[in-house]
Amino acid sequence: MNIAIILSGGVGSRMGIDMPKQYVEVEGMPVLGYSLAAFAAHPDIDAIVVAVADQWRYFVAGLAARLCPEKPVSLAPAGQTRQYSIFNALEVAARSATGDADLVIVHDGARPLVGADLIGRCLAACSAADAVMPAIAVKDTTYLSDDGTTITALLDRSKLWAGQAPEAFRLAKYLAAHRAMDAAELMKINGSTELAFKSGLSCRIIEGDPMNFKITTPEDLSNFKTIIKARKK
User: Fold this and answer.
1) Is the pTM of this model over 0.85?
2) Which of 32, 52, 82, 159 has the fewest CB atoms nearer than 10 Å to its CB?
3) Hey, where are the domains in the chain?
4) Which class in CATH covers the domain with range 2-134+163-232?
């Protein structure tokens, strides 16, 4: 069984608007809806769990009923951090688990241009690893600065990769890693695969998609609107 976890608990503090970015409407659809629709339409996804803040539960439930009529959608409470939202969603996903072969694929609701090919490749790659993360090679010369004003070191960009979502995991192992991690350490986790790596799970990188960007700034939202308008034309 393959279960998609979509994270929709963020507040979008960098956007400068009065609602979370994933609920901004673009061409008649909330940003979150584009991610939901992508996973609902994928033939390898059996169920979906959305991590959502309490005040948006009814909105998300209605959106899911409209976009995912043929697949079960459950809601999980958003956590204090992104990783705690994942933890909550994993506990919900585990209720539908059928065995050790079950996979979860974790995606951001504010990353609406995810393609079916990338979803499929993430799931397929989990046959040879406990965790799979799509990534883009870093192209620019990259520096390390300890104080933000002076250069401390020059990093080898040939070994640097920028992680994306969705990230796929073996459900049982990934959930066990969350349950075993100290609460204070879990609070420090920034990326989904980071926890898997720190827990000793086998982690694999696959080629990401440059179009699969996350909306974090007003410029990102503007670019997304332009792309969707162009696709509709």
Assistant:
1) yes
2) 159
3) 2-134+163-232
4) alpha beta
